[in-house]
Design brief:
Elements: H1 3-7, H2 15-26, H3 34-59, H4 67-84, H5 89-111, H6 116-136, H7 138-141, H8 161-185, H9 187-197, H10 199-204, H11 209-235, H12 245-258, H13 265-279, H14 287-301, H15 305-316, H16 333-346, E1 353-362, E2 365-375, E3 380-384, H17 391-399, E4 406-411, E5 414-415, H18 421-426, E6 429-432, H19 444-449, H20 458-467, H21 470-485, H22 501-514, E7 519-523, H23 531-547, E8 550-554, H24 558-564, E9 567-572, E10 575-580, H25 582-586, H26 589-596
Parallel strand pairs: 3-8, 3-9, 6-7, 7-8
Antiparallel strand pairs: 1-2, 1-4, 4-5, 9-10
Helix pairs in contact: 3-8, 3-11, 3-12, 3-13, 4-5, 4-6, 4-11, 5-11, 8-9, 12-13, 12-14, 16-21, 21-22
Bound molecules: adenosine-5'-triphosphate.
Amino acid sequence: MSDSKRRLRPDPKRSPYLLWIFCFLVIPWLPINGFYIFLAQTFFYTLIAVIGLNLLLGLSGQMSLGQAGFYALGAYGSALTALKLGWPIPLSIAFGTVLAGLGGGLVGVFALRTRGLYLAMTTLAVGYVLDILAQRWIGLTGGAMGLSAIPQIEFGQTKSGPVVFFYFAGAAVIVIQLLSDFIHDGRFGRNLRAIRESEVFAASVGIQVSRWKAGIFAFAAALAGMGGAFFAHQSGFVGSDAFTVRLSIALLIAAVVGGLGTKSGPFLGTLILLGIVEVIAGIDKYGLFIYGLILVTVLLAFPKGAAGVLDKLNTKLGLSDKDTRLLEDPKSSSKQQRSELALSTSIVQGASLCIQSISKSYSGLKAVDTVSIDVLPNTVHGLIGPNGAGKSTIINMIAGVYRPDTGRITLGDQDISALSIADRANLGLARTFQNLQLIEGITVLDNVMLGVKHQQSYSKDFFDWLFKNSLENKERQESINILNFLGLDHLADRLPGELPYGHRKLLELARAIAQRPRILLLDEPIAGMNTQEAKEIAQVLLKLRHLGITIVLVEHNMEFVMSVCDSLSVLNFGRLIAHGTPEEIQNNPTVIEAYLGTGVKKT
Ligand SMILES: Nc1ncnc2c1ncn2[C@@H]1O[C@H](COP(=O)(O)OP(=O)(O)OP(=O)(O)O)[C@@H](O)[C@H]1O
């Protein structure tokens, strides 16, 4: 396969679905006893709940110990509507799923202000509250005595009921697995992984972090609810005992044992979980203890779970995808010129930036004191000054990480002072960080694609992915052009962790360029680089300016600053002490005394 085709390959690996469909058609007709059909049904609906948790925890990094509560919402919602209102089962299952999703969304909006351990504790508490409600609201749920005679899928004949249920739940799993793969493969997965890495970073590439977090929380809750709804119609009975924290832990174990954040992890983890449940059925008293033991063992021995073990095996057998890395001449100048041309067509014209009398104090310390700076469009502006002068604070105020105590910031003719980080990014502000921000678990190319602006409504994405993958391919091509431009295209299939520091810095710049910025903010772009690498970055910045981007940078290397900047602002103790061309600044006695000393030459 040619490189360009391989790069543009539609990523979703669809062959597992053929296996699925084959098993799906064959299993019910095999001469196996009804117990195995029952087990397969249980496997299907448990898998649905585990897929949700895998997306939540594995991709977005949010821990939920309350999935049993949403599972209960789905089970009661579906059981009650079918039992008391006589709704058809597919409709009642859909209702249970939506009810759990709404519950998850509601919890999401409030709970997602917390993170890490606190989020885990909050979701645990939500799970407890829903469990206690199920126990105590006897009039509705029947408490521990439960609801019985819940309609089961019979389709006229009780005899064929289990097989119909098998198909029904199996079809739901295929759809959910497709959705999960879609999320893993494309923009959704990249955005969620970015949020897991750093919320400030995710917002800086234009992701509306709280919406995405609440959305994936609701989706995972809906899938837990769908699992619960299937459970209710399988057993025909729902009692509060089924929804304790033990269920939440079992789902968590399946997700972790299978391999968090992997596409096949939930399938493998659920298989292992149900296998264990069958084995320990006779020693139920010690069930929780055994679950815990398995979790600890897997975490220590196989941190990437069963999917990680399979992956290693595939690599050993030469079946892995990673063997198809792209190795080309890293710097073919004609290729770079072509990509520069392609890039020039997608670059948006740079904007002006106007900072008016901004100040910022940190608990009494005035880090920035009534600073005003004007940056003209299509120029490179440098912010310089000694350590602690307030440069990074200004960059962070421009990007929206900090709000100025006073003053205002205008991008073009738009006042952005009160906008969120993501809104500013979507208006054309892109940035790099003093401490590199890259997503380690995805390829170099995917890191760049994270910056590419989404060009169509998200609702169209799924069908595009399923049938053509044209949008993803277009975004890939755009990102490859940028990697070509920076001479990094031969590394497109690598992971960022495999790159030397200089290339990692370039990769961050590539991601920022992919955002098609009107203003590019660079916080110490050559820190840690050698002289040759610094010269290459200087060339890149001059080309970017030539293409029309406005650049604001903070840098301590004066030779570099003087060679790329059109104008400079000098800060000292939070105050602006000078403003002008590099030549004017080099000859300014106040600046020489406060910062430069003598001997800085423009190169
Ligand atoms: N989050 C914070 N909380 C408290 N003080 C802070 C915070 N961030 C910065 N400061 C203080 O504000 C002042 C300005 O810091 P800032 O990082 O903006 O300076 P800088 O010019 O970027 O320095 P450097 O060149 O060392 O990065 C310093 O005295 C610093 O200690």
